[in-house]
Design goal:
Length: 411
């Protein structure tokens, strides 16, 4: 879902903070703000035992989502932060002593304080009506944050733009993710897409019996879960927590090895593997060209390299750009997303030749402001609609699909 760029309340809030904050500052805000700030705490953090208001430098409070913020956290924030900006939708708080505090007679600040006073006078009623208030306030304030599926755990409390992190910081972030349960697939669409990735992998790889296979970005052993008959399956991942979990899961499979390793610096000799597999990976590395070079370097001549790509020219992104919205990434963990033409050029430079391409899912209105929100319940969880989107992904050219798979050989 793209950020509501054409909504002045949202953009005025962003512009105010961007004039005063440092990129290292953490901002408490609705999740969609990750597209505007490199370090974000979502409202989920306020319900965590680890939550401390002082951990944030800024707080963007959506008046329609007050019921999502834990009450004691909100009270601590009001004591430790100063209100510095307000409009009909948001109140912004800051720890900075250099910004003027909102005057007491500011209309939007007065309305916010009045709501808080009512809450303080009848706390028991507030607690009883909390969930009903949440729905009511969402309807009352028409400018709601768009709903989205991020491909990350629903309990995610902290969002940091991976493009701003070092490899070591990314390793730590991924370790924390796997310690908290790893990736989740809460919707019917998520589950259908995950199943299709597995199916494409088995269909597009040549015979695996007796082969040495490298799985780059293996997580907790996805390749090993799919391919049982190979001579050797070596999985590598930047996260040592993921590797430890994979080692435990496949401790009884003698043909599986798992190593903590950076995909941009593979510690293997040239021409070492018959096949290389890498799922949901290329958009997660800081240097995609180097990633392709390394994957093909360790592949034997004539061997198969299979990977999939988040398509920056998919139909929904083309529509969004045509409407005048800026380009956006579909996941905060992505460094970059790629078109089919870009992948073809990078593979050619790295020494690979494409043998087969297949599209996966066509989602025409995903992320299109004003449309996606209205139909998201269907595209996420209505089986008939999800199956149609899956079929369309098979039938259209891969350059328009949500993602595409590439099978190439080393020349």
């Amino acid at each position: 879902m793209s950020f509501p760029e054409h909504d002045s309340y949202w953009m005025d809030t962003v512009n105010f903070i961007q004039q005063h904050y440092c990129p290292e500052d953490f901002v408490l805000a609705p999740e969609i703000f990750w597209e505007k700030f490199t370090r974000l705490y979502t409202y989920k953090i306020t319900h965590s035992q680890r939550a401390i208001a002082a951990d944030c430098h800024w707080a963007i409070i959506h008046k329609g989502l007050l019921a999502e913020i834990e009450e004691s956290y909100l009270q601590a924030l009001l004591k430790e932060f100063s209100p510095v900006f307000a409009n009909a939708v948001f109140v912004v708080f800051s720890r900075s002593a250099n910004l003027p505090t909102l005057p007491d007679d500011d209309l939007h600040w007065m309305a916010f304080k009045n709501w808080l006073r009512q809450n303080k006078q009848w706390p028991h009623r507030f607690q009883k009506l909390k969930h009903r208030l949440k729905g009511y306030l969402r309807r009352w304030f028409s400018r709601q944050p768009p709903q989205r599926t991020t491909g990350i755990p629903e309990k995610m409390e902290k969002i940091v733009d991976f493009k701003t992190l070092t490899d070591e910081q990314i390793r730590q972030e991924m370790n924390q993710l796997y310690l908290e349960g790893g990736y989740e697939f809460p919707t019917f669409y998520d589950q259908a897409r995950s199943t299709e990735i597995d199916q494409y992998t088995l269909e597009m790889l040549p015979a695996t019996a007796g082969r040495k296979i490298l799985d780059i970005g293996c997580g907790i052993g996805r390749g090993a879960s799919l391919i049982k008959d190979c001579e050797l399956m070596v999985g590598i991942d930047l996260s040592d927590v993921a590797i430890e979990q994979a080692q435990r899961l496949y401790a009884n499979q003698s043909n599986c090895q798992f190593l903590q390793m950076n995909a941009l610096q593979l510690d293997f000799p040239d021409h070492n593997f018959d096949m290389v597999l890498s799922l949901e990976m290329i958009e997660h590395v800081s240097n995609a060209q180097q990633y392709l070079r390394e994957a093909l370097r360790v592949l034997k001549p004539g061997g198969c390299f299979l990977f999939n790509v988040a398509n920056q020219d998919s139909l929904h992104l083309r529509i969004t750009r045509a409407l005048g919205y800026p380009a956006f990434k579909t996941n905060y963990q992505h460094f970059q997303e790629f078109s089919l033409a870009e992948i073809e050029a990078m593979l050619l430079e790295a020494g690979g030749k494409i043998q087969a391409i297949r599209g996966s899912f066509l989602i025409p209105y995903w992320g299109v402001p004003g449309v996606s929100e209205a139909i998201r319940h269907l595209t996420d969880n209505q089986p008939e609609v999800v199956n149609i989107l899956q079929t369309l992904g098979h039938q259209v050219s891969p350059e328009y699909a949500y993602t595409f798979f590439v099978a190439c050989t080393k020349v």
